[in-house]
Amino acid sequence: MPRRVTIVDVAARAGVALSSASTALNGRPGVSEATRARVRAAADELGYVPSLRGRSLSAGRAYAVALVVQRESDVLESDPFFGAFISGIESVLAGRGYALVLQMGITARDVARRYRDLSSYRRVDGVFLNELQVDDPRIALLTKLEMPAVAINADRGIEGFPFPVVRQDGVAAVQEIVRHLVDLGHRRIGHLSGPQHFVHGRERLVAWRQAVLDAGLEPGPVLDGDFTYAGGVSAAREMIALPDRPTAVFCANDLSAVGFMRRLQDEGVQVPGDVSVVGFDGIELGTYVRPTLTTAAASPRLIGAHAATALLDLIEGAVVPDIEIEPVRLVVRASTAYAPQSRDLRHTSA
Questions:
Q1: Which end of the chain has a smaller Cβ tally under 10 Å, C or N?
Q2: What is the pTM of this model?
Q3: 304 and 85 Cβ atoms separated by less than 8 Å
Q4: Residues 4-31: tens digit of each pLDDT
């Protein structure tokens, strides 16, 4: 196995002191531009790759950032949204020499302990604050720890929010979903909600209810989908037992929508013949199921990339503004159709 090239080798090849080589390679002032160019040329010739430990000691950074997820472990296994989000983060980190530390905690206490450990031992330089909660205790904790952070889709109602935010508006997409269902003749529209302690779960519920009211309708039943496949299955059982079932259901995410559709079909309820179903997120799984899932397509990979860029810029001393990316968009597929009592509209609108 060939010996690893070190900074000592680079200094010898460039004919400079070790301290000068370190200064030149780390971009610090103190050497002439000619010396800096000679050192970098020597490093390129030798194929020198600086060690992460050496960079960390030299710059006083860990060259790592963290994503701490407060969920059961099977969520990461089953929900492709997280994979796309992490992929977006990695697409930026790799090019700037940073590593991602992924940790999980089940309870709020677990998560708080992990943040404190990451800060105390200087294992990371900053964190992503994902899946914001209502009155989220992590905000005060990270402020106290003076930990650089970037938040994903934080509540717009919080004044003086201490961290930069990367947002993708989903409210307009929920309004578009309801208009789409109303145009198909649906007059009883239900909602399969996510956990209401999550900001995005509450936001989607509020947006759905307001959009239905704006259409001059009474909101249909609200069932708990828990953002999981199993939650969708359980909610479908509940809906089937209702005496006045909705003809359309907006689900707070795609994973619960897929479980919801599957259980309905197992019970002989036709989708979309009896019930139209709409999801939210736009995960690829929605194109594999039958019928294919009408959904509001978010951009988790783009969100991750923007969040990573913002966090690294913040760590490196830049002033980072909030970032608004392109809104979530409605993608109409085969899981929505005219309401059973309104199928004649297909002829009058053709």
A1: N
A2: 0.81
A3: yes
A4: 788 788 889 999 888 788 788 776 678 8
